[in-house]
Amino acid sequence: MPGPLRGLPDAPRWVLVLRTVAALSAALTGLWASAMFLQYSAVNGLTPLAVVSAVFLFFSTAWLAWGAALGLIGLKPAPAFDRSVLGPIKGRTVVLVPVYNEDPTTTFARIAAMMASVDKALLEAGEPDVPVHFAILSDTRDPRVAEAEERWFAHLMAATGAEGRLFYRRRGTNEGRKAGNIEEFFARSGGAYDFAMILDADSLMEGATVIEMVRRMEAAPGLGLLQSLPTVVRASSVFGRAMQFAAAFFSPVFSRGLARLQGHTGPFWGHNALVRVDAFTECCGLPVLSGPPPFGGHILSHDYVEAALLARGGWEVRLDTDLKGSYEEGPESVVEHAKRDRRWCQGNLQHIRVLMAPGLRAWSRFVFLQGVFTYVAPVLWALFLITVIADRVTQPPPNYFPDPYQLFPVFPSDGTAKAIGLTIGIFGLLIMPKLLTTAEAWVMERMPSFGGVGTVLRSVLSDFILMSLLAPVMMAYQTRSVVQVLMGRDGGWPPNRRGGAELTLGEAWAASKFIVLFGLAGLIIAHFLTSHIFYWVLPVVLPMIGSPLLIARTSQPARPGKRGRRLFTTPQDMRNPAILALHDAILADWRGEGATPAGTASGPVGVPPAVASGP
Questions:
Q1: In 331-484, which ranges are E strands?
Q2: Higher pLDDT, 16 or 43
Q3: Burial level of 458, CB count in 10 A (0-12/13-18/19+)?
Q4: CB distance 442 to 449 below 8 Å
């Protein structure tokens, strides 16, 4: 059955205009940067390498400008959601929690907290009999972890008394990884439910948020997927807290910009999202790409593809940035971030294989291109720097006396002013959206929830400095990831390291020595062969040389500042959300009872109902 939006445009006319303006602004900014660079390079004679560098700079700057455009578009607050369209819940919902070699104590405590929160929200809404089930879908390969999962599931079942609405099953093989795990559940049991909330093992959602999302989907019959904006919590390291602050302070603005450009073809980030089961099962059967990984096999970044398939089927995919109470955890170190990013890189580059799939909406194809360019852009920046240095190395030294009978030297024109202007312009693209977001936070009175004006200003400045230092390091990791994929190396799907990820200097050196070597090479070449651009490359090569120190230091726990107030304060630091406090209490109680609860489930451990749904 095609979705209600089949045959309709993927966006209203005003959205198409907004997309065009944003794209043109990005392209014109890239052209400006290239023209400035060519003028600077032409001072001493334009070379083919300079033209190649200008092309790399065009795409790199246009990408930065596109990100800045999202921030500018998102500055305007979103209108309040029309709650008059909401009514009582009629459908059945299941909350899906896929796990893969996770700590079952912490994960199952999250589920206990969410079950209690959902029950409370339904009771307060006067709908205590609305069916909301929970299903733990295990892909765990480690037998010891699998055994612990069964013990803790029995403990969870006994603690909640939720027989009939709490299920656990472990697959014999993890075919298709997370996407295959969910697809198998829908094939066996999807017919029992109208909606499914898809989570990650580290997800936490307030019960009221779950119920609100179900109501919104019931009120919109054409809505196939509703994505919330997860807030990063629990970070303790310098790196983790910086990323957590950026996600809480800057991301809502950029996400509003994205939401305004998406039309009916919004994003799916793989978790903390509600799907309409019928629509998902009918549209989202993923292909297995021909050939071996990394470009063949199962699609790693399945969420973007599933969003595109829903839109192709005529279903709306929507991001509601006003939804609160949706949480996740993030990496606590640069190394853990790079490991996760390696998988995302491979998954996004796989999208080249599905870019021209028949029937896709134009915006869905553009989203695939954006995902690819997310990882190509750092490579282009690296190629720009390499070609600039190579161009300077191959240029002959200036001839001050081109005429043998010349009495006075002819000094070459100085293009320093143009180079400085170009540098300021590029840095402006990076910092302007953050400055405007800071102004928006002041106007909208968001600053008190982040610790006040002083704490916010220190956090924004510290974020800019830290991210500027880490940018060359991240560029090196992403460039290596792209090169590995292009060389045919499969990165697989390594398990996430939850919680603290404190690294020693030796561990940081082992993970970043290739970055140090490239930084040293760049410094030596710039000093001995291209001394006139030596100072221009220092902001790039010095952080690369010092990357072990940066990685190790930023993985350390963040220390409280004056009056106990830490940098990168977020609203969750100021007031612990109810669902996080409930999870902490349950986890502390469980751990007080011992890390290995006695007894296992007798007989089948709450296997989900076998009700076939969809193809």
A1: none
A2: 16
A3: middle
A4: no
Overall size of the chain counted in residues: 615
On the CB side of 295, CA atoms within 13 Å amount to: 14
Q: Are 149 and 140 in contact (CB under 8 A)?
A: yes
Radius of gyration of the chain, Cα coordinates, nearest whole angstrom:
26
- pLDDT confidence band for 598 (50 / 70 / 90): very low
* Local structure of 405: helix, strand or coil: coil
3-state secondary structure of 111: helix
Instruction: Please report the beta strands in 75-194, taking only residues with DSSP state E, as ranges in sequence order.
Output: 93-99, 132-138, 166-170
What sign results for the dihedral spanned by CA atoms 360, 361, 363, 366?
Answer: positive
Q: What is the pLDDT of residues 202-216, one digit of tens each?
A: 999 999 999 999 999
| 205-260 residue pLDDT tens | 999 999 999 999 999 999 999 999 999 999 999 999 999 999 999 999 999 999 99
State yes or no: pLDDT of 498 exceeds 70.
Answer: no
Amino acid sitting at position 559: R
Query: In degrees to the nearest 10, what's the CA dihedral of 254, 331, 166, 219?
Result: 0
3-state helix, strand, coil in the chain (%, to 5): 60, 10, 35
Q: Which two structure tokens, joined as six digits, stand for 98?
A: 């896929």
Compute the distance between CA of residue 214 and CA of residue 223 in angstroms, rounded to an integer: 11
Burial 7-17 (b: 16+ CB within 10 A, else e): eeebbeeebbe
Q: How far is CA 28 from the centre of its chain?
A: 27
How far does the chain reach from its first CA to its final CA, in angstroms? 12
Q: How far is CA 205 from CA 33, 158, 269, in A?
A: 44, 22, 15
Q: Is the pLDDT of residue 397 over 80?
A: no
CA 40 – CA 137 distance, rounded (Å):
58
β-partners of residue 237 are 557
- pLDDT, tens digit, 9 for 90 and up, residues 67-103: 999 999 999 998 889 998 999 999 999 999 999 999 9
The Cα 171–Cα 188 span in angstroms is 12
* Residues 6 or more apart in contact with residue 442 via CB below 8 angstroms: 453
Give the model's pLDDT for residue 335.
95
Q: Which amino acid is at 549?
A: L
Distance in angstroms (rounded) separating the CA atoms of residues 502 and 504: 7
| Contacts of 226 by beta carbon, 8 Å cutoff, 6+ apart | 213, 216, 217, 273, 274, 275, 318, 320
Q: What angle do CA 576, 580, 582 make, to 5 degrees?
A: 110
In sequence order, the β-bridge partners of residue 179 are: none
DSSP run (H or E) holding 205 = strand 204-205
Query: Letter for the amino acid at 70?
Result: L
Looking at this protein, which amino acid is placed at residue 93? T
Q: Which residues contact 389 (CB under 8 A, 6 or more apart)?
A: 522, 525, 526, 529, 530, 533, 537
Q: Is 106 helix (H, G, I), strand (E, B) or coil?
A: helix
